[in-house]
Amino acid sequence: MRSWLKMLKELTIRPKGERQIRKSPSYSFDEDLNKPISGQTVKEILASSSDVVFREFFLQGKERIPCMLVAVDGLADKNLLDQFILKPLMVDLAGHPELAQVTLANVVDKTLQSLPGLEIKKISKMGEAINAILSGDAVIFFGDSTEAIDIGARGWANSGVNEPVSESVVKGPHEGFTETLRINTSLLRRKIKHPSLRLISLKLGNLTNTDLVVAYIDKIASPDIVSEVLRRLGKIKMDGMLGSGYIEEMIEDNPYSPFPQISYTERPDILAGKLLEGKVGIMIDGTPIILVVPAVLTQFLNVNEDYYERAMTAILFRFVRYVGAMVAVLAPSVYIAVTTFHQEIIPTDLLMSISAGRQGVPFPALLEALIMMTVLEILQEAGLRLPKPIGQTIGIVGALIIGDAAVKAGLVSPLMVIIIGLTAVASYAIPYYDLSLAVRLLRFPFMILAGTLGFFGVSVGLYMVAIHLLNLRSFGVPYLSPIVPLRIRAMLQDTFVRAPWWALKRRPQLIDVEEPRSGGKREGEGEGKGKGKGKGKGKG
Amino acid sequence: MERISTHQFMILGAAVLMGTTFFPVAAMVTGVGGRDGWMSILPGYAAGIPYGLMVLSLVERYPHKNLLQISETLFGKWIGKIIGILYILITGYFGGLLLGQIGDVFQSSIMPITPISLFYLGGLLLIFYLVSSGIEVFARFSEAIFPIIVIALVLNAGLAIPRIEQGELLPILSEGFKPLFWGGVKVLPFAMEYILFLAGILTFLPTSKQELGQLKTGVWRAVFLVGILDTMVALIQILVFGPTETIRLVYGLLVLGKMVELSRTVSGVESIFLGVWLGAGVIKSGAFFFTSTWGLETVFGLKGLKWNLALGVVFMGIALGFTRSINLVMEISLVDNYLILPFTSVWILTLWGVSRWKKGAGVQ
What we know:
The complex is a heterodimer. By secondary structure, chain A is of the alpha+beta class. Chain A contains 17 helices and twelve strands. The model of chain A is unreliable at 11-28, 512-516 and 519-540 (pLDDT under 50). In chain B, helix 1 packs across helix 9 (178-201), helix 7 packs across helix 13 (270-300) and helix 8 (135-159) runs antiparallel to helix 13 (270-300). The longest helix of chain B has 37 residues, at 325-361. The interface between A and B is medium-sized, with 26 and 35 residues.
């Protein structure tokens, strides 16, 4: 038993910040990467990849130099290579007096001077050449020269800038991030045209070599949080980095919590807004989902449209979302507790009606709710994975036909169907999918607690969740901030309510920020009273 | 080393001071002070303020030390150890009794058939989770729950206003001032419970001169806030039930919750209030769990999960020993009056006096 526990501990408990996925014993050419460039070796390494193109030709200078252009078909722009690289080298420059002096020793410099193009540079390491080719660039090797030319020729098919399905808005921009990192950084740059926007490039994944960009605004983002993000990203060691979910689990503070500790967005305007609040974005090549840290619980219940609507309507919708979240977590468990243990709460007329509805139902309320909730989960999961038209059909069949049939058969009471329906609808009011998943998960223990210990059980469950949330931090920021620790200004400005833009004079107090928000001032308003005073005090 | 802010100290102090005192306070003060008993609550609490200030003044001289460590420094190792053992025994026993109160309240009011040990287990689970999360999370928990407790108390009292009979308070001061004095003496142990907690939490407090001033203000604020709230609870019970019935009811506030009715629709909401009272009970019992662990660590060097578990078992055992409401309330009252009050008042006064004397004499 003791050894089994020890083994379990070894498997599950990892030192903080040192999260590593076990690397597969894959073949490695790491030792080749630091060697000087050799076209022949590159060919040997990449020859077995059918998508890699090797175009060999000669450059006629003082001596005849064999050249080889290597690129990945589908990643590099063929037109660009044909028109602006191969044609000048093979046709236009042939017989040019400048080229007549070319020897193997100076071919790289001479070619660099002759070729048109913005992103052309000299490289001398094997690793640089391989990475450049596999990232979509083209590389020209010259005979036995230990230098080569890297041509930025990336141009692959992408899905284009469309509105994200999961974050659509009525009033607001209708553009979303794509799977291409460079397009995403340009979308962000279009929103924040200021030199203080910092985009730090990284690479992750030993085999995938995935490009990453850490985005933040200098002087607004806390340097501590930026360096912590870079530190945690730097600690990641894994073979493949195929999406945001990989990184999320590797850098979050508490991997065993059901609550999301890193928020995400597919919208440039949301990312820009978050960066302006002092947060840090992590953009990953190959996914339109951008991670944003640090994250606090309340922000998962606020949506971007709150900032495009009038303050009063935004407050109403936020209130609706908070109520929806509470209903989604507690409605079934409160129903179970009330009908099983605390009937005195129910007004007499309603009690009679509930009692009549439950007549003939063979199961206790707990079992009835568990069965219905499980059916709901199955329906949700089935609807999600099926094509859209079929998914809708499943929903209608499940909700109307099965529910109605179950009531008629006397398997469940009509009120239970209403409660489950209400719970399902309420859970859709939670804007972030990750949080709604956590809510779905928590519903079951709450129901069991309510079915066994009534309101005492529900209270114990709520306090357990509260203590868990109080324990959580996202990059050092308490997860329940600004409720606890209490930040009154943040609470009144942009938490449960959203103050009008002219009243949002300072940045959120959740994190240390170094500059006041200068936008929250009406034209012609004096500098004195309403001016942001700089350093936010919100210490984690 | 964990630290809590001055604001957290104030809220945590108020939450611990309040605890579940709103259950017995009305019956206690009315028992000795009659219909004027409610007037003695605030002075009774206020009498604890000098003790709080004395404890905080020791932080200035002995920063980052709790009162047990300061006792060892001032009185010598063995006297310090004896004080420490008494501290552990008293706080451990009292914490166990408070855990028992959680179960007692739930079983006697809304769930009489459910085994009481399940309530103990639920409460202990929460306490254990809080203690293992550390004092910082405990302070944040209080920060989150205390406002809800205050709102629930005000709501409970406010919803009972339609049942008030003003004549129950009259004639005012018909027995003179003497019963008020005894009422105050009955309330003073509540303040001493807070002082015992304060004795242990000192190591987690900030020590700069400015912050010490804020801590002292925090003591004042906590005492007055809780004093006013408990006065309100006692007053409303006397006004609704009358003095005789108030003395007879062990958990008068629960009965008050049962009487709430709004337009014949909302009624029987005491089970919802009980969810909040559970939080109050967990904070109070948790505070004494903390004090016991600090005591064990200071006196015997025992700390860690193993010893916390052992302490949890002791708490459970003590709670199971007193399952009937009247026995439990009497035991709590006895511990308050004959252990906590004399022990704390003598200990703090002596410690502060010796510290002052040594400072005056230039002795370290």
